[in-house]
Amino acid sequence: MSADGSPWTRLWRDNLPASTPRRSCSSKALAISKSDPEVTKFLVTIDRDCRTIFGVDRIKGTCEPIAEIEQRLERTLEGTLTDDARKWNRGLKTIRHVPGGYILCDIFGIYRLNLDFSIKQYLSIPHFTDIHSALPYGDTLLVSNTGVDEVLWVDWQGKVLEVIDLHRWFPATPWMAHDLAYVEEQFKGDLRCMPLDWARESCHVNWAEQTPLGTMLSCFIQGEIIFFEGGRPVRRVPASKKCHAPRYFEDTGTILVSASEENRIIEMDLSGRVVWSMEGFQFAKHAERLSNGNLIVADTGNRRIAEVSRKDRAIVWECAVPGTPYDVEPWRVEKNAGVDRQSGKNA
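^ thats the sequence. predicted structure below, dont judge the formating
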């Protein structure tokens, strides 16, 4: 392995600027660690065989379909995805509110949605493969490009501004070097043309967010939370194998983690010491702190959304969903926008 990173990276990194200016991104730019007190509804995505965004109402105890998201498969090369890739691309990953709409991703692209959930813009560059999260920071996106163990900063024109290549810090699996020449020849570097069973990783980085301590990544296979600054790891926190969606809270200096394989939600300090935990989940993939101190959990294996009392370690309410939930996002009303965010209708 060269100092330039993984062989996949070398397929396209020549197009990056010689030096990329550092950005100053506060974790407060991503306002998903808080929920307005009046929020009673949540948006839910399903990660397998479902292109529908659902709305869960905690007062009514209902789960209703909100919008069906058209599958977009634009290519830089002629042809279509393999049947296997089409199957895996049927689900949705993260959804986040931004002024005037939402940012949503599936494994091959990122969607900018209007308040009525219509598609305003679709972004998919050749290097995207098995995206697990795409979080907005101003006019840029922080993307966990899981299939090749990279985290990318990109803009909405598809320009890659910065890259964190996990294969510089963890050994790459042998298939990468073996198949590089074939991919270069057959696919011209477009990883979306590959069968998905090629996309094996050594880390499976499934989450990335910006924090005051640096860019925080979740390494599913290693069971670590890693903070990067200047493209280098500056802090490694032992977590749980097959962990998902860590959330760093500046007020407590702790990290909330979905310890999926252990079927529990944990909160730990920066040394990895667990300071709180709750069991009773089934491979949960996302947990979020609400303003009342409770947690909202996408309990994936149990096919439900649940609010948990952190103090009592008890379920406050729960709602079944028609599939395996991946993400849950507080669904607030965007005030003075001319559109009711919870209905998508003119206010």
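Residues 175-187 form the longest helix (13 residues).
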